[in-house]
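INPUT
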Amino acid sequence: MDRRSFLQRLSFFGGGVVLLGGAACKRGPSSEPPAPANTQAAAANDASPRTFTRAEYAVVAAASERILPRDEDPGAKDADVPAYIDRMLQSPELEQMRQDFMQGVAALERRSQRMFQVGFAQATPAQQDELLGLFKDSPAGSGEAHFFELLMVLTLEGFLGDPSYGGNKERVGWKLVGFDTVGTVASAPPEGHDGMKCLKTCGRHP
Amino acid sequence: MTKEPVDVCIIGSGAGGAPMALELGRAGFKVVVLEKGAHYQPKDFIHDEILNSRRNFFMPLPWEEPHLVRQGAAGRYERTNSAWTANCVGGGTVHMSGYFYRLKPVDFRLRSTLGAVKGSTLADWPISYEELAPFYDVAEAELGVSGEAVPHPFAEPRKGPYPLPPLDVHPIARELDRVCGDMGWHSLPTARGIISRPYRGRAGCAYCALCGSYGCEMGAKSGTNANLIPAALATGNVELRPRCMARSVEVDKEGRARSVVYLDADGVEQEQPAKVVVVSCTAVESARLLLNSVSNRFPRGLANGSGLVGKNLIFSSFGESRATFRVSKQSAARPWLTDPAPFVNRSVQDFYLMPDERFGFRKGGTLGFMWTHPNPIFAAVGLAGSGKNGVFGKALKDRMREYRDSRILQFEVYGEFLPTPGTYVTVEPGVKDKYGLPVAGITMDRHPMDFAATRFLVERGEEILMRLDPDELKRVGIAGETTILQHGTCRFGNDPATSVLNKECRAHEVPNLYVVDGSFMPTAGSVPSTLTIVANSFRVARGLVQRMKRNEVRPSPSGRGPG
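OUTPUT
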C-alpha cells in the first residue's frame, strides 16, 4: 500500500481529515525547519496580490481556471480562487508549501516559454491544458507532480471552502456540487465567521 | 518549576483520561489533567471544512508534529499525520462519529477461541465480558448513548435498554432492513454516541449534516468534552490544564512514578508531582511518552523492563465500498432519496465469527452503513483522482455535476487487526517534534488473515448494496486500516513477562502508574473501540479509588529524587 492510501484511512471520520494530504510538504524527516516568510511579497492594498507578483498571479489565475474552467457553470476565476490561493499561502504554517508552490509556478512559466514561446498566462487554453497534463502525469514525487497536486488541492479549497476565506464567491462552488442544499441551515458557519482569522486563533496548538 | 503535589496526575482528557478524572474527583481526590491541545468551547465548533478537516484545528501538522510510518522494518519512513486523534480537551471523542458498539464475549477470549494463529501474537484478555459489562452500562449512561438492542446471533448480553431511544434515520435504512432480511441476515440499529433527546442538561441532536470530523456545537455528540469533563470539573477536585504537553514521567529511587514533567502553554517546563500517574494519550502517543521517559532505573523506557512497551500495536482493519444513486434517475421510484436525514445507522454483524476457516479466516467483523460525508472539498479531491488517473478541467466539472445529482451510500468494515511481531511503535531520536521531543515511529506488518477477512466482509457488503439497485457500485478499498483506532502498545495480562499492565491496567513494574487508553487491549474486537475504552477506564477508576481509600497508595516522597 502506498502512503496516500495509508493517509486516507483517516476517512473513518467520514470527513476525511487529511489536512492537505501528502501534498502539503515534500521535506523528508531530516530536513531543516522552514525559512522565514517571504519578505518581498507585495504588501500594498488589498487589491494587490500578497504572495505573488502580478505576473505570477496571472499564471496562477490561468492555471486554476484550467483546473475548473467556466462553462455553463462558473469557473475558478468566477469563484475568486486565485485570490484564495494568494491569501492562504500567507499562513505562516504553510510557508514550506508556499515555497514549493512558487517553484512550481516558475517551472510552469519556464516550460511554457520553452514549449510555446509565450508565457503560461498568454498561452492558448489547449496549450495550457497540455502543459498541466504533463505536470499531472509526471512521476509521483517529482516537483511537477507535487505542484499539480498543490494546485488542484488549493483550487478545490478556494472553490468549495467557506466564502470567508476569499474564494467560493457567492457560494458558486457549493451550488455546483449541491452542498448548499444539504447544509444551508444547520451547517452554515455563523454570521461574521472569518475563516482566516479563525485559523490563526482557534487553530493554533502552541 | 515544581507545582504543588496532587493525588493523581492524568495525561490526556479523551476516552481514557476523562472517566478517571470524573471518578477520582467524585471520590474527593485532588486531580490534575494535562491536555496537550486547546479547550475548545461549543462556539469554536464551526462548520468550516478548511478549519476543521484540513488544518491543525484538531490534528497537528505533519511537519510540526509528525508520526513516521513505514511498511516493514526495511521500509522508508514517511512523515504523516496518520495515527493522530484530535488534540484538544476531549481528544478523539470530539471529532468522532460516535459509533458506540460494545465488544462481544468472544473478543475477550480470541486466543482460546481461534487457537494459536501463526504469525500473530494473539492473546486473551485477563478479564471477561461479564467483568466489563457493568461498566459498559455506566459508560453508556454517563456519556449518553442512543440505540436499540435487537436480538441477533452475535448479540452481546446486556442488562437493559440504551439510555436514549435511537436517532431518527433516513428512509434508506428501511430498504437495508428489507434486503438484509431477504438474505437471512440481520440489519441492526447502530448505537450512537449522539443523544436523540435532551439528556442531563444537554440538548438533543439537531440532525445537521456535519458530525464526524467536526465538533458538535450543540453538545449532542457524547464526547468527553460535553459530559465527563464538565462533570469532573464540577466536583471542584479536578484541575484541567490545556495546552500542556507531557515530556516525561519521572521516577523516584524505588522506581515509583514521582511526577510528570511537561511544557506549559507558554512552552515553559513544569513539574507536577503526584501519588499516582495515569497515562492516556492514545496507544501510539502513550507508548512514545513511556519510551521517552528514560531513567537509570528504566533505561529502555518507563515500565519497559519486558521490552513490550510499543509492541503489539493494533489498529482496526478497514474496507469500504460505495453505491451511488442518481437522483434524476431514481426520483420516481425513491422520491425520498433527497430527504436530508443524515443518519442511516445500520450495521451487519452476521459474520463476526465464522464457524470454520473455509474463507481463510475465522474472526470477521462488522459492516457499518452510512451516507458518505458531505464535506465538499474532500469529495471533490476524491473526484479529481491523482496521477495518470486524475482529471481536471471539464472532466472534473462533469464529475462534480454528477456528484450533485447523487446520493452515495457506503459501508465501512471494522475488522479484526491481528497483532504481529512486525507492527509496533518506537521512538526515533533523529526526528523531533516542535517541542523538541523524539517522535513516534510506526512500523507496519499486517497479518494476511486480516486481508482475507476484510475482503470477505467487503464482498458481503457489496451484495447488500447491489440488492438496493444502485446506479453504480465502487469498491474503495479492502486492505486498509483505521489509524485513529489504536490499541495494544501496553497490553494487559497476568504475566509480567508477556504484558506491560496487570488486569487493573497498572504497570507490572511501576505500582503507581496506570495506562487507560486503548493501549491495554491485546485484541481490539471488530468494532470501533471508543466505548470500550471509556467503559474500561470506569472499571480501572473504581479499582483505583478503592485502593486509594484503603490507603494502598503511599504518598510520594517529597523533594526530587535522582530520577
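end of record. Residues 46-177+194-206 of chain A form one domain.
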